[in-house]
Amino acid sequence: MATLTTAEPPAKPRTHTKPFVPDFVYFEPGALEYPKGIQIMDWVKSQNIPFKMTTSHNRITGLPGDTELQQYKNAKRTLVVGVRKTLTFDQSKPSAEYAIPISTGCMGHCHYCYLQTTLGAKPYIRVYVNTGDIISAAKKYIDERIPEITRFEAACTSDPVGLEHITGSLTELINFMAGEEYGRLRFVTKFHHVDPLLDLKHGGHTRIRFSINSDYVIRQFEPATSSFEERIEAAGKIAKAGYPLGFIIAPIIWYDGWEQGYADLLQRLAQAMPDEPVKDLTFEMIQHRFTKTAKATIEKRYPKTKLEMDMEKRKKKWGRYGQYKYVYPDEQQNALREFITERIFEHFPYAKIDYFT
Ligand code: SF4
């Protein structure tokens, strides 16, 4: 087990993570037949962002950049505004019944992000303007399952909070779900831009989860996302706005000083919460894991990463996607789980831990 020495870098002045503004925008012509498409076009023009029309949001070619790496970086700063044609939702077990598709792709540069492998050649950010159709489809799924509750996850393939200032789609979903006795919305974010959501009448039907980590992990491995302080402050605002709240501590990383890092994280979170216990607070814990494919992609995209991916130091586990994944050996897993669980219950004795995986 690591000692209580700290590898936290000296505190840097607090930064302000600005809302995302893409470098380039593509519109599908059909997108401009929807109010949201026009609203986004107006925003793009007001920001003087170059744009052009494209035939389909699935076929964006010719992104600038001499190397694959440059093209990847440019793609993550490219927004594609389209119409969602597939209104059959994917399953999103175990945390929700369905994934609700409002956006795909993300401007964050988390070294370990699974979107790098799942989105393959399409790392650009797509947002869908026909939220009315998407909501109608959700309504059908809800009605089919009554009297069971149906949960929808809005962040399976994206971080929609980071796009809310452009689309307003989460606001629409939260408003819709507030009136659905049998429907629930949930999403997870690494962005702190939650102000547009604070005054909504959510009816307690939307659970907002923050993906959080030690300051060290956020600084080292999560560029282009909101900082440790910003996320903690945003979580406090969401708790005060009465939303069901959750935290995903992921990926939990073993580094020299991890105990101090995770102890600080839980202490700071507790300080940001309202005085009265937060109702129905949940924690999810996910240790860092990787596959061989992910490791190869990460080393190509983030060649200087300090992310430790030494297969010799890991335990092999068969994954459900037909590939081995590499997790920490049992002794390290147990140490991480026990230490962080104790800190959670020390500061949040009323919280529920959903799982450690
Ligand atoms: S914020 Fe989330 S979706 Fe975006 S790059 Fe980071 S891990 Fe991936």
UniProtKB/TrEMBL annotation:
It comes from the Bacteria. One of its GO terms (molecular function) is S-adenosyl-L-methionine binding. This is Spore photoproduct lyase. It holds the Pfam family SPL. It comes from Paenibacillus zeisoli. Keywords: Lyase. Its EC number is 4.1.99.14. GO terms for cellular component: endospore-forming forespore. InterPro entries: rSAM, rSAM_sf, SPL, SPL_Bacilli, SPL_firmicutes. Gene3D superfamilies: 3.40.50.12110, 3.80.30.30.
